[in-house]
Design brief:
Blueprint (H helix, E strand, L loop, with lengths): L5 H11 L3 H10 L2 H4 L25 H10 L14 E2 L11 H8 L9 H14 L3 E5 L2 H12 L5 E4 L4 H9 L3 E4 L20 H11 L4 E7 L12 H13 L4 E4 L3 H11 L8 H10 L3 E5 L10 E5 L2 H14 L10 H13 L3 H20 L12 E5 H4 L9 H13 L1 E2 L1 E3 L1 H4 L14 E5 L7 H16 L7 E5 L10 E4 L1
Bound molecules: ligand F0G.
The site of ligand F0G has 15 residues, from helix 7 and helix 8.
Length: 495
């Protein structure tokens, strides 16, 4: 609680100690003029001190030109020591806390029945309420194990927006991944508090039209990463759950950024302002039959994930596949110390001071560059700012990949690495044809607890400089590509 008035202090003390005498003493000593009616403090401060530091790669413009050419004009193939501010992903790139490192030192590395698994399981059950907790080495392994057990060839899966690995895992099994995000969620400039919501009318129509037997499951991705890191409201989670269950379909959450989604519900949805993020998270999970999770995001860990669910029979089948592909059910591809890091990290991700700082620092960058005219997905998401390349570079046609071009220009100018979320990532259809993605974006994803406000100021300066020179940016063509998930390894050439 932030103490701004004597009254707040009174409440805080009576809440914490319940000792009226102390309150009276403090009240008498209080320099009232100095401390009463304090205004809200505007500066964003990192809610941590830094005791371990890592030098980052300073490069010259010339070095970056050569590095990008050597990487086949694909930022995924750049060595990280050639990157100054790395916003490629918020996945597994965060800084861990002293408490996480301490828990890791005390881990139990037993193959079976380790205490570290108990700690991990207890934390996941406490937050999600799901009965079965299946550890995996990261999110996509949880997806693969779950989908292998519930998706039949030819079946359709429904999501607000499937993330790329989610979609790829479904297509690999012969399923068809369909995105049903609300129309506002596809318009970058349109302001809406919950642009990650699913269109519930479309959900119902799709189930009716395709038939329940042809649908494998309904899922909501919180926050909706591929749709701009946009949150899903509690009302929408509840409504989607009710529709799915009405038709007897299972409903899952892709919970990678559940804590950030909880914070958005707290600050944007009526009735949640006074709730703790952890209570909101518990309510979100209560509407679902299970979740897949990448602990590399809101698990605050460098590796790890899990599948959590209630269905006993399905859990047994998933554990059988887990043993085949990941490991024994009490470690599933993780070291004991990874499970300890996640057990602590899941709670740290839900701390209000942390979430306030995280969401505000991203909004701070968004506000600065928006004021200079840079088009971004509005409002900014929970883990990233998404630059709208189609709006910024109208002179580059979709077939020349404007977001890819913008991403590379950002690296050349300032050593900043983002990621294209557009037609290179999503444009190739399962039949090999090419179709422009609904949005062509550059995502600048913030690692958790890594960069400070002056890093963000630098970023704003570089992005604005790039915006002023936008007409000098030209497109790219593909030289070499893989048949699936081509963006990771594609080689490009400037036009
Ligand atoms: N679902 C969502 C919404 C994701 O954002 C990711 C990963 C995954 C599933 C897969 O998890 O990487 O642990 O296997 N997103 C990362 C990103 C890679 O950069 O957004 P994973």
């Amino acid at each position: 609680m932030f103490v701004t008035t004597i009254n707040d202090l009174y409440l805080e003390l009576s809440y914490n100690h319940g000792v009226v005498l102390i309150i009276q003493k403090v009240f008498d000593k209080m320099p009232k003029k100095l401390l009463e009616n304090l205004p809200e403090i505007k500066t964003i401060i990192e809610p941590f001190r830094i005791r371990s530091v890592e030098a980052h790669g300073g490069t010259t413009v010339q070095e970056r030109v050569l590095a990008l050419e050597a990487a086949g004009y694909n930022p995924f193939l750049l060595p990280s020591d050639k990157v100054l501010i790395d916003l490629l992903t918020d996945s597994g790139t965060g800084a861990m806390s002293a408490k996480q490192w301490a828990a890791m030192i005390a881990s139990d590395e037993a193959y079976a029945g380790s205490k570290s698994f108990d700690n991990f399981q207890r934390a996941v059950q406490d937050i999600t309420g799901f009965k079965h907790v299946i550890p995996t080495h990261q999110g996509r392994a949880a997806e693969h194990i779950l989908f292998s057990n519930i998706v039949q060839k030819g079946q359709i899966t429904l999501n607000n927006t499937h993330f790329d690995t989610t979609r790829a895992n479904i297509e690999y099994l012969g399923g068809e991944a369909r995105d049903l995000v609300i129309a506002e969620g596809k318009q970058p400039m349109h302001i809406h508090p919950f642009k990650g919501n699913m269109d519930t009318d479309l959900l119902r129509q799709t189930i009716e039209r395709e038939g329940v037997a042809n649908i494998a499951f309904v899922m909501l991705t919180v926050t909706n990463n591929s749709g701009g890191g946009q949150p899903v409201s509690m009302a929408n989670i509840k409504a989607v759950s009710e529709i799915a269950h009405e038709y007897g379909l299972p409903f899952y959450l892709d919970a990678c950024r559940f804590a950030e989604n909880s914070w958005f519900i707290k600050i944007r949805e009526e009735g949640y302002a006074d709730k703790e993020p952890i209570e909101i998270a518990r309510e979100m999970f209560s509407y679902a039959d299970g979740c897949t999770m990448s602990a590399k995001k809101d698990g605050m860990a460098n590796i790890g994930g899990f599948l959590a669910l209630n269905d006993d029979d399905l859990a047994m089948r998933c554990r059988n596949l887990l043993i085949l592909t990941e490991g024994f059910p009490t470690y599933g591809g993780l070291a004991g110390y990874d499970m300890e890091a996640i057990a602590v990290g899941l709670y740290e991700a839900l701390e209000p001071d942390y979430l306030r700082y995280r969401i505000r620092s991203i909004a701070y960058l968004a506000d600065k560059i928006t004021a200079a005219g840079v088009p971004i997905v509005q409002p900014p998401g929970g883990h990233a700012v998404y630059l709208d390349a189609r709006a910024m570079l109208p002179h580059i046609p979709d077939s020349h990949y404007p977001a890819w071009a913008l991403c590379n220009a950002l690296y050349l100018l300032g050593g900043v690495r983002g990621v294209e979320i557009g037609s290179v990532m999503f444009g190739m259809q399962p039949d090999g044809t090419e179709k422009p993605a609904p949005m062509d974006l550059v995502r600048l994803a913030f690692p958790r607890r890594v960069y400070t406000q002056s890093h963000v100021d630098y970023l704003a300066e570089i992005i604005i400089m790039l915006y002023e020179r936008r007409e000098a940016i030209s497109g790219y063509r593909i030289v070499e590509q893989a048949p699936v998930l081509r963006h990771f390894t594609v080689k490009m050439a400037p036009l």
